[in-house]
Specification:
Keywords: Oxidoreductase. The protein has helices at about 10-20, 35-50, 60-65, 90-105, 120-125, 160-170, 185-200, 210-215, 225-230, 235-245, 260-265; strands at about 1-5, 25-30, 70, 80-85, 110-115, 135-140, 145-150, 175. It is α/β, with parallel strands linked by helices. The longest helix is centred in the first third of the chain and has 20 residues, at about 35-50. The structure holds 1,4-dihydronicotinamide adenine dinucleotide (NAI).
């Protein structure tokens, strides 16, 4: 099966790895050449670690790497059975990509968006054949997270829904079909997890490291909310909150945080930029002999 991924950032790279591991031929496209080079390098590092841990052998590593080609034109995606878009969380940009994409691929190609919060119906409406558009929402990091939400828009055909569920299940993921509503299931439930933590921090109830510690140690969460926001990226996380807030007619329970907005404006996007709530550039202390 030929899979195309548009956007080779955090999510696109992870989804490419998942599809290649499952035996698909993958084409990864990004407007930014550096992003493609970074993605290729990150895959090498990830797969090398898996070989070290004896989770895969060297042949499997080469097979996965050889299954992914890094392309620099949308035209290169014309022979795809399924295209998954994982670019910036901006409706107008996504709509433009979908309407262009539609003219390049075959009639039967499924066009999916990995959007966290935007309306699949609005994305589908940018296409002449909206019945083949669907949401396929992976979680970060895509190779490790089991759950994938599959979101049919009102326009999506039953056949496209069933095929999408089948493909994602074949990739050994657990599918939850969700209605096309802001944030779907997980991102809607998760909003108050971030927002309330930010409010507690802003009110000075505790510092962010203490809140993370409390939720992990006492609450049993694998990651604290601030660590998680740093991992997701404040650009992505803030925009998702703002989108859900707007889409729910400004319900105050989804109100975004100024603290997070300032981090985003400063370019402190989290792990990917080296600094968010935590500083990832600091050199670790060298252990004494
Ligand atoms: P990212 O910022 O890491 O990567 C986005 C990539 O898309 C960049 O490499 C950029 O150069 C590229 N790009 C932007 N516009 C483009 C265009 N018109 N054509 C081709 N490439 C383009 O973003 P990330 O985190 O991978 O998010 C991508 C999508 O996945 C967003 O819709 C986001 O909401 C969603 N998502 C993000 C999650 C996360 O934890 N980061 C989790 C689940 C979904």
């Amino acid at each position: 099966m030929n899979i195309a991924i548009i956007g080779s950032g955090t999510m696109g790279s992870g989804i490419a790895q998942v599809a290649a591991t499952a035996g698909c031929a993958v084409k990864l496209f990004d407007l930014n050449q550096d992003a493609l080079a970074k993605s290729k390098k990150a895959l090498e590092t990830t797969l090398s670690k898996l070989v070290e841990k004896e989770k895969i052998d060297a042949d499997e590593k080469s097979r996965i790497q050889n299954s992914i080609s890094y392309v620099n034109s949308l035209n290169d995606l014309s022979d795809s059975d399924l295209v998954i878009e994982a670019i910036v969380e901006n409706l107008e940009v996504k709509r433009k990509v979908f309407s262009e994409l539609e003219t390049l691929v075959s009639e039967n190609t499924i066009l999916a968006s990995n959007t966290s919060s935007l309306s699949i119906a609005s994305i589908a409406a940018s296409c002449k054949k909206p019945e083949r558009v669907i949401g396929i929402h992976f979680f970060n990091p895509a190779p490790l997270m089991q759950l994938v939400e599959v979101i049919p828009a009102v326009q999506t055909s039953e056949e496209v829904l069933q095929k999408s569920v089948q493909i994602i299940s074949d990739w050994k993921k657990v599918v939850a079909v969700a209605k096309d509503t802001p944030g779907f299931i997980v991102n809607r439930v998760a909003r108050p997890f971030y927002s309330e933590s930010l409010r507690i921090y802003e009110e000075g109830v505790a510092d962010f490291a203490t809140i993370d510690w409390a939720l992990k140690t006492i609450g049993g969460f694998r990651m604290g909310p601030f660590e998680l926001m740093d991992m997701i990226g404040h650009d992505v996380n803030y925009i998702v909150t703002a989108t859900v807030f707007t889409a729910f007619y400004f319900d105050p329970k989804f109100k975004p945080s100024f603290t997070q907005k300032r981090l985003l404006e400063a370019g402190f996007l989290g792990r990917k930029s080296g600094r968010g709530f935590y500083d990832y550039c600091q050199e670790l202390p060298v252990p004494k002999e």
